[in-house]
Every structure is written in C-alpha cells, then in structure tokens.
Amino acid sequence: MSNTGQSASQLRIRELEEQLAAKSMSSRSTHSGPSASQLRIRELEEQLAAKSMSSRSTHSGPSASQLRIRELEEQLASKLKLASKLNKMEAREVQLGIEREEEIKTLLIKSFQLDIAFLVDVTGSMQGPIDMVQEKISHILDQILAEKKGTKIRVGFVGYRDYGEKVEQYDFQQVSEGRDSLF
C-alpha cells in the first residue's frame, strides 16, 4: 500500500483514539470518583496508547494498520456499550432513591396523629369567654389541618365547673366527624 494508504490508516487510528479519550473524559466527569469499570477503561486506554506508540514507531504494513483500526473500533464499541449500561444503572439507582424518599414521606404523613385536649373553665360566670374559646378551638383545628394535610387529629375537651355540678365524659373524637360535634 502507498504512503497515502498508511496516512489514512494512521488518521483513522488517531480519530478512534480521540473518540476513546473523549468518551473516557465524559464518563469521568459524571462521577465523583472512578468506579471499577472506569479504572478498567483507563487501563485499556493506556494499553491502547502504548500499542499505538509502538505501531507508529515500527511502521508496520497495511494489514497491521487495518488490524489496528479494527481493534480500536471494537474497543470503542465495547466502551460505548459499557458506558451506556452504566448510565442506565446510575439513572435507575437515582430513580429508586427518589421513589424511596417519596414513600418514606408518605408513610410519615400517614402515620402523623395528633391528640389535642382543651381544658376550659365552664362555670356559669364564664359563658361569654366560653363562646370565644369555641371559636378559637375551631380556628386552631382549621390551621393545623391546613398546614399538615393528611394529619389525623383527635380532640378532647375538659370543662371544669363548680363543686357539685353534673360531670359529663366523652371519649376523644375524630375531627373528621365534624367540629360541631365537639361542642
């Protein structure tokens, strides 16, 4: 083969080496540290560079250049395939992490329960302030429900009276049953 044929082969080898180097650089920039596969890729690149240098200095015949081109193309294809698999695995890992985080948040919200008890003086002389307390309790419950959607709230009320008045007892009640049922 002529010098032109060897020059084209050498240009193709150089082009493939540049593609390998570019792919190697892009895979290095996506990770915080080199993985085992990246270390292997670097090792292969170094071997490739060493072989490339030795083949340039020995001026092997056209068949050797063709073999070298084929070898470089196979290595490039292999690295591209490996990089594609790594990117898919990393994307899946990130997606699984996001899904798990959302699942945990949902479980925390579902498990959040709040019991509130109000203690109020309900003697006859307190009737005016009692009406205001009822409004404030409703406002407090509305505010909690607005800020913490999905929260299960149970409300208790303890009214204390003068000695000898009738005592009424009620269990905690779910707010979802209606605030009106609390009073």
TrEMBL record:
Residues 24-38, 52-66 have a biased composition (Polar residues). Residues 20-41, 47-66 are annotated as: Disordered. Gene3D superfamilies: von Willebrand factor, type A domain. Residues 115-183 form the VWFA domain. SUPFAM superfamilies: vWA-like. It comes from the Eukaryota. This is VWFA domain-containing protein. It comes from Chlamydomonas eustigma.
